[in-house]
Each structure stands twice: as structure tokens, then as C-alpha cells.
Amino acid sequence: MARILAYTSPGRSHLFPLTPILDELHRRGHQIVLRTLASQIALMRSRGFDAEPMDERIEAIEHDDWRTRNPLQSVRMNARVFCARAEHDAPDLQGAIADTDPDALLIDINTWGAMSSAEAWGGPWAVFCPYPLALPSDDAPPFGPGFAPAYGPLGRARDRLVRPLVFGTVERLVRPQLNAIREQMGLESVASMEEGFGRVPLLLYMTAEPFEYPRRDWPENVVMIGPCAWDPPAEPPPWLVQTDRPIVLVNTSTEFQDDGRLVQVALQALAQEPITVVATLPTGDPAGLQIPANAHVERFIPHTPILERAACAVTHGGMGSTQKALAHGVPVCAVPFGRDQLEVARRVQVAHAGTRLPAGRLRPDRLRAKITEAMDCTEGAGRIAAAYAATGGARTAADAFEQRLLRVAAKLT
């Protein structure tokens, strides 16, 4: 059996989808060594993992892209954060490798320094990605603006014209910084982000078609495994057991992006409706909110018990929370604020699994109408749930990790 070192970025939205995969590998007899958020170490140790916190300086570097609504400026600010973290996560992973002598690595796609360290290490390694991959494709619209897929000659012409503008701009912003990290690790520069993704031996992509746009040109190293949605074990709150009304779940990002007004608007929009509203604010403070009688607001509670009874989920368009709802067959009203959320929200709409409302148009009357419309999308949400289940989830991920990495490495030794 192998000793597998897993390394995450400082976000629960990345650690929690990874957990079922680590559970499955552990169940198969592999030893799991984990470096992740300090706040989650006790929870991860309770699952039988040898868990230690990442370098505390990494967690101290927080996203600040919420300060702008300019998409390109947001990309630049996120790249700056990943590069700043890379100065610490690259040597942090190197130290973990030296301390634990692993047989294989499983690395978060948002840890640019750790990814470079993994490649420079030379042993078998894989990357997991819990958000939409920014890979160009002839079968999908250019990534970023949240375009709907286009068909016919005019649509294909649009994509041909826009794709180099979108990807070219992002490449100019990100590639030099990514290559600077690679050069520090003694690695060759890459000509594009696509080439960089292609150097990963195995890329576990946490989604599935048709929520992800179907395409004929997926790289061979990409394996789609569904969302692998997971919550920490917890007893449902007493008020959840007592309510017999339809439930609407409202949630915001686990990494601060100033999206708390989504909860306030949702509380206003639904205050007079015969439903129960459950809202979570992982990075906000519920203390200043005006909470109506039909609502419960918490910093964080596991979503699974709520989604088992929910009629709709109102999300900020984050991939994790959106896919978790859809995995339960719950339709989504997505209100994207930035980052990859424009793409996620558009996928919800295109899959007929819910609705989208741009954050700039967020008002109580509009949100209420979109939630009502989303509740009629149960068939589309159920279709996506079935597609997720068909991927095999954590079992498929563990199979790919063993067959494509561990067995190949064993044959080479």
C-alpha cells in the first residue's frame, strides 16, 4: 500500500470535496498524509489521516478580488494571491515531502507553488480541481465571461473571435507569474496555461457532463469524477426537524468576497412567503441582519441535512455549493459576484437546472421571481444529479489514482 501526501489551498470548499477521495483511498489501505487548514486538523485526524497544518503564512494571505468588479482586474488580483501563497506553499510541500517520504502526491490546483514542487519532485502526482477548468475547446464558449454556448456559423465565428481575446488576456496576466514560480523550481517555462495543465499526470476534475459543457477534445489526463460533495458529520438543528414548510437554502462564499448582501436581499425577498429560509454566512457576521420570523441565519452549518429537504438553493455561484445542491437534485438560483461564478451560473441556466441573476441586478423582487422560476427546474436538477452519480465519484477517483499513478510507478521501479 502507498503513502499518499495530499496538499490543499486554505479553503474548506477545496478540502471538503477532497475528503471523500481521501476516505476511499484510506479505506483501500493507503496511508493518508495531509497538509491543510489549521482549523480542520482535528476533523481530518478523526478520519484516520496523519494531518498537520500548512504554513500559517499561507492562510494569512487572503483574496482581495472583491474590491473590484472588473473581471480582468479580478484575474490579476487572484493571480497575485496565488503567487504570494506560492512563495510559502512551494517550500511547505517540499518540507512535507522530506518529512513523510510519500509514494505519491495529490495536490490542489490552486497551490501554484506546490504544483511546481510536485512536478520537480519527480514521483507520481495528481491534481484535483473543484471549479471549472479554464481550458480552451472548439466545443465550448471562451471561459470567463459566462457566455452561453453558441451554435451555427455565427456562434462559431463569435467563439473564434473572442477566444484569443479572453484567453490571450488571461495568459498575459498569469503565465509570466506562473513561469517565474516554475523557474524557481528548476522547471521549464510553459507557453500557455493549457500546456501547464497538460504536464499534470492526472487531473481529477470534480464535475461531469452535461453540467460541464460536453466537448470532444478533453485531454487524456482529465478524469471527471463528479462533485464529491461532503459535509462534516453533524446532527441536524432542532428547528430543521420541526419545520414542515418548503426550505430555501441561501449561502455565500467560504472565502470572503463581500457577497453578504445576497443573504440580506434573500431575507427581504422571502420574508412573506410560506417557506423556511436557511442562510449561511461563512465569512460574514449575522449579527447586523434583520432576520424575519421565517428565517434562520448561521455562520456555518452542514448543508446536507438541509438539502435533503430543500426546494431551492440560492448560491453565489460557487462551484462547490452549486454542485452540492444539484447532487441532491435541488434546483439552484445562482447570483454570481465574480471569480468563476459567471461560468457556474451560466451552466446552471444552460442545463435547465435553475436560474441565474447577475449580482448587479440583485433586488428583492427580481430574486423572488428567479427563485420561483428555479423551483420549476427539478427535472433538470434531477438529470444533473443522475449524471454526477454515474461518474462513480470518489471510487472513480481512487481507481484512476491507483491505475494511472501507483501501478505505473510500480512498473517503473
Topology:
Blueprint: E1 3-7, H1 12-27, E2 31-36, H2 41-45, E3 50-53, H3 56-59, H4 71-100, E4 104-108, H5 112-121, E5 125-129, H6 152-184, H7 193-198, E6 202-205, E7 222-224, H8 238-242, E8 247-251, H9 261-270, E9 276-280, E10 295-298, H10 304-307, E11 310-315, H11 319-327, E12 332-334, H12 341-350, E13 354-356, H13 364-374, H14 378-391, H15 393-412
Parallel strand pairs: 1-2, 1-4, 2-3, 4-5, 5-6, 6-7, 8-9, 8-11, 9-10, 11-12, 12-13
Separate helix tally: 15
Q: What is the H-and-E element order?
A: EHEHEHHEHEHHEEHEHEEHEHEHEHHH
Largest beta sheet, briefly? 7 strands, parallel
Distance between the termini: 15 Å
Poorly predicted tracts of residues: none
Strand order of the largest sheet: 3-2-1-4-5-6-7
Main CATH class of the largest domain: Alpha Beta
- Mean pLDDT across all residues, rounded? 90
Question: Can you characterise this structure?
Answer:
The structure is a single chain. The chain is α/β, with parallel strands linked by helices and 413 residues long. The chain folds into 2 domains: 3-226 and 392-412, Glycogen Phosphorylase B (Rossmann fold, 3-Layer(aba) Sandwich), CATH 3.40.50.2000; 238-388, Rossmann fold (3-Layer(aba) Sandwich). Helices cover 45% and strands 14% of the residues. The strands form 2 sheets. A 7-stranded parallel sheet has the order 3-2-1-4-5-6-7, with helices on both faces. Helix 4 (71-100) crosses helix 5 (112-121), helix 4 packs across helix 6 and helix 9 crosses helix 13. The two termini are 15 Å apart.
